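Case study B.
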Amino acid sequence: MPAKNFASTRYSELTEITPENVKNLRVAFTFSVGVNRGQESSPLVVGSTMYVLSPYPNILYALDLAKPGAPLKWQYNPKPEAAAQGVACCDVVNRGPTYADGHLFFNTLDGTVVSVDAATGQEAWKSKVGNINVGETMTMAPLVARGKVFVGNAGGEMGVRGWFQALDQQSGKVVWKAFNTGPDKDVLIGSDFKPFYDSDKGQDLGVKSWPPNAWEQGGGTVWGWLSYDPDLNLVYHGTGNPGPWNADQRPGDNKWTSGIFARDADTGQARWFYQWSPHDLYDWDGINEQVLLDMTWNGQPRKVLVRPERNGYVYILDRTSGEVLSAKPFHPITTTRGVDLKTGRLQYIPEKKPHVGKVMRDICPNASGAKDWSPSAYSPRTGFLYLPHANLCMDVEHMEANYIAGTPYLGSETRMRAGPGGHRGVYTAWDVAGERAAWSIKEAFPVWSGTLVTAGDVTFYGTMDGWFKAVHARTGEILWQFKTGSGIIGQPTTYRGPDGRQHVAILSGVGGWPGVVVSADLDPRDGTGALGFLNAMRDLKDVTTKGGMLYDFALP
Amino acid sequence: MTRRIFRLALAVLALSACQREDRTARPSPVGLESREEVALVVLSPGESQPTVRTSGKAKEFEGNAYHLSQGKKLFTWFNCSGCHAQGGGGMGPALIDDRWIYGGSIENIVQTIREGRPNGMPSFRGRIPDDQIWELAAYVRAMSGNAPSSAAPSRSDSMHPHPAENRTSPSPPVSGGIVPPSGQMPQ
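Model:
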């Protein structure tokens, strides 16, 4: 799976590549995915085969690692509906396939879950679960556990109603489906539901924390990362932003958006919920990764969940109960004062609330957040969480949003820019137990790639201007870098190949929300383009072009 | 003498303003739509140009300040701006640039809005009355400076991301535009 394990640590036990020899890395092979859009996916290696998934049209390739040059074994083309491209908010990306029991599972942009035989490339089943006519797409990487494929929808900018569902791994049939807004019975909230904080207790909050019927277009999608704890049999998933962006149109806490659910993997019944950003004002989807760790907290062993959140805080939650143990900022913040650990509530600064007809300036972090989907990695050797993230602020003006199914439901205009210091990206090593940054590396552009860390104490990440970098996991020293053909927003993978060597692979091809200016040829004269990201990314066209190329490196 | 010149100038001004603001009091009902027989390419076998027959409706809308400002308002109302922003693009392509995938004439644009386009431009037939589609199309052309500056909208309610349409320098349509991903689909 792209996240390496159920706990989503992206930590590899491989030790062949070290801080001393990483400078000798050489290209072992390359492969063009044939699609020049944002490559957010992660190459996946199972045995001696590498699987690579393209952005829309979501073609899956199998490469034979046992042969020189890793030639193509087969390709599978699910032929998704082309119109899906028009309702994908932020480039036509896909965050990866996942593997289990001889099959690959992935989502297509038009809302179909696919299972493909890993050996032959034959389609095992296809299950249509999303509807592009109401603006639903799918971009997340599924997670497979307990014989089920867990998937969620995207489309929080289109007024969709967010859901999360489990399909039977063998047949693709829906086992259960939970909505993230609306009445308790739809949300799968029942007698098992024991949220930690009072603000999440009560009947049908998914209806009552909204103006009448607003929950029907309320968002709360699941387009990010999932984790699973086999001992507790709980699957963890975040929920996306509420719709529309204009928050004046939805007074209330807007449950269960911009939060996190722990659900029973077999029944989908919610166990607990915590809301990162109640009544979200800034498009802060709560869908980032949750890294499951067992650590000592105030002298007690605790099962925790670490979440670097879009609102700018690294949270440590008790993953059995949903209690917030810590929430410390990792990004300049002008919008909130911190998290009240008694009530669990994020403390908004009321003066920073955007309004209709007035430009609210200097909102930090911006809409894409201190950190967006780009997954972090945790090394038990250093105790650091390696965070690829941004340094961005924005100006916002609201207007009335008009709901037309299948079109954007925003009511907001945004213009983003670099945060304090002028750099737009940061790669931070976060000391989890120490609750602070150990070191960080500034980057000109938002760091939109994922990362990984190895037992050899080397981490890897990529930049939007195309550099693939190896960093010393302890010191933050850049040990090696290689310029790929296009900007990097993908997730690196490391593996031991059939040649016995440790390899590192990454997809190069700029895009995603900040990179769509290049991948879809947007016009940088309009700062509100790409939902306001264009304003911050005008110069990206000067440093990179589109791409779609896999690079695989190994020591000579 | 100077007085006569002045009066004449006034009359000319008034007349031109009239045309600038010209509009029919009773627009055509929702059901009716104009017929535009336009091509998406400059090639036609054995001809120097493809055969094109337009309804002539363009004349009512192009260069008409009232229709252009209505078009600008509708561009937000129908959530065009959600996908195309203020023309820089996002989910949909940029509209302030000079490149057109499906043609940059007002008739082409009317058809784009009415029929939709395969890579995700919704079809608005039956959702937007015909005359409003024309207003939108005229405004879309104004976004890339393809409307007289005397008639193009001169201010924006938005965050002023770029100069208003009447100060946008004209960029005549170039055919081609981006290659949509489906056009690059392997196999």
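Chain A touches chain B through 48 residues (CB under 8 Å). The remaining cases will be described in the next quarterly update.
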